[in-house]
Amino acid sequence: MSRPTIGILYDFDKTLCTTDMQEYSFIKNLNMTSDEFWGEAAYITKMHEVEKILAYMFVMIKKCKEKGIPLTEEYLRTCGENVVLFKGVETWFDRINAFGESMGVNIEHYIISSGTYEIIQGTPIAKYFKRIYACRFMYDENGEALWPSLAINYTLKTQYIYRISKGILDVTDDYNLNRLQDESLRRIAYRNMIYIGDGMTDIPCMKMVKEKGGKSIALYPRGKKETVKPLVEDERINYVCVADYSESSALENIVKLMIENMAILEKLKAKEILQLSQYKKNEKQ
Hints:
The protein is an alpha/beta fold. The chain has a single domain (5-18, 84-284), classed as Rossmann fold. The chain has eleven helices and seven strands. It has helices spanning 26-29, 34-48, 52-67, 73-80, 89-102, 117-121, 157-166, 174-178, 203-211, 229-233, 250-284; strands at 5-10, 106-116, 131-139, 145-150, 193-197, 215-220, 239-242. A seven-stranded mixed β-sheet has the order 4-3-2-1-5-6-7, with helices on both faces. Strand 6, helix 10 (229-233) and strand 7 (239-242) form a beta-alpha-beta unit. It is globular and about 80 Å long. It starts with a strand and ends with a helix.
C-alpha cells in the first residue's frame, strides 16, 4: 500500500512573509507609498467596478509603464528576493518533511495566494512547494506583462483545494476537475489537509478545510492576537498561533501533532479495510 500524503496549504502574504509581498521592493521601486499604490487599486475597483485582484494587477502594469520599468518575469522574481519571511520559515519545510517521513507519510506543501506568482518564485522558499497557485501575468513578444493570465481572489482560492485533493494540478484542466471522483481515489483526502492563513481573506479556505475534516490554523504577528479574534469567535478555525515557524515553536508543535494524528488515523483506516476484506473473503469460503 502506498504511503498516505498530507497536504499543507499556505496563504503567503502575512502568513509566510510579514506584509504584502509587493511592499518590499515592487512598490518602493515605483517611488510610491503602500497607501498610494493600494489606494489607486481601490479607486479603480470603485470607479470601474473592477474585481479587487484584477484592479491591483492593472495598477502594477500601468505604473510600471509610467515609470519605464519593464514588467517582466525576471524583474518580478528579483522583487521576491527582498521579501522578509517570518522567523523559522526557511528551515520549516525540511523539518516538517523529516517529521512526516518519521511518521510514515509524505508531506506536500502548496501555496494558494492572491499575491503575485512571479514574486513568490523569487523567494528562497519557492523550491519547497509542489505547486504555487497565485496571480500570474501573460507576456508579450518582448517578455513584458500584457494582461493577467490568472487572478485568484478570496473565494476562488477554494477551487485549488479541490484541485489539490483530486490531484488535478494543471490550472487549465477544468474537465477532470469537475468530473465525479470517488473519495477513496483522491490523491489527498480532505481529512489530511492543513490550511495555514492569517485573516479574513482566508475564511473560505479555512472554513472549507475545517468542515471537510481537515485542520485550519490562523496566524498572527506577535503581540497582535486581536487580528484573528473574529475567526475564533465565528469558529472558522481549529487553532491560532503566533507567526513563528521556529523549531519547537507552538506552531511547529501543533502541526506535528496534526501530522501524527493523521498518520495514526490512516493506519487505522488501512487496518479496517484489510480486516473487512479478509472477513468478506472468509465468508465466501
